[in-house]
Amino acid sequence: MVAAAGKLSAVVVIVLVIATISNSVSADPDMLQDVCVADLNNANVMQIPGLNTLGVSMARVDFGPGGLNPPHTHPRGTEILFVLYGELDVGFITTANVLVSKTIKQGDVFTFPKGLVHFQINKGKGPAAAIAAFDSQNPGVQAIAATLFAAIPPVSNSVLNKTFQISNQEVDAIKSKLAG
Predict the structure, then answer these.
(1) What are the Cupin type-1 domain coordinates in residue numbering (predicted)?
(2) Over the stretch 56-114, which tens digit does the pLDDT of each residue have?
(3) Is 79 assigned a ligand-binding role in the annotation?
(4) Residue ranges per structural domain of the chain
(5) Is 74 annotated as a binding residue?
(6) Contact at 8 Å (CB) between 88 and 122?
(7) CATH fold label, 2-23+31-141
(8) Which of 51, 77, 128, 161 is the least buried, fewest Cβ under 10 Å from its Cβ?
(9) 170 labelled ligand-binding
(10) d(CA 162, CA 149)
(11) Annotated binding residue at 44?
């Protein structure tokens, strides 16, 4: 158990060093809203003011069986995910609409490029947990479904009808599931 904790500590230190060394990108702060089915514990500049100007942040994500971190983006940061335990199916979609996906297990690492839509899901029968590290003190998060169907003021049904080729009733049903 001590050896496993030592390996975990070493990996976390390596991730932080790599994130610190990588290029930092400045941007004006945006309004943010985290929308996750998975349980998320952030370690960013909002929780740890000492991270201000260091250009790094982390989050622990705990997944129950079937737990999902739904499709989302980080507009201001690249993410590297390290699996603590369990097994996750992860993936991102390139700007050419190509899905890059993989099943990752304890000790595995996967990278999600800045700004690309990505997801994680626990398809296992037991819990899973991962550490996400970012090369930004505030990478931002924009959940795709909530962005489109729970925006305030709302996106027009006609825009969503045409975009997804669905009826007003279907748009309203999706909006009601994502509301509040």
Answers:
(1) 22-172
(2) 888 999 999 999 999 999 999 999 999 999 999 999 999 999 999 999 999 999 999 99
(3) yes
(4) 2-23+31-141, 150-180
(5) yes
(6) yes
(7) Jelly Rolls (2.60.120)
(8) 161
(9) no
(10) 14
(11) no
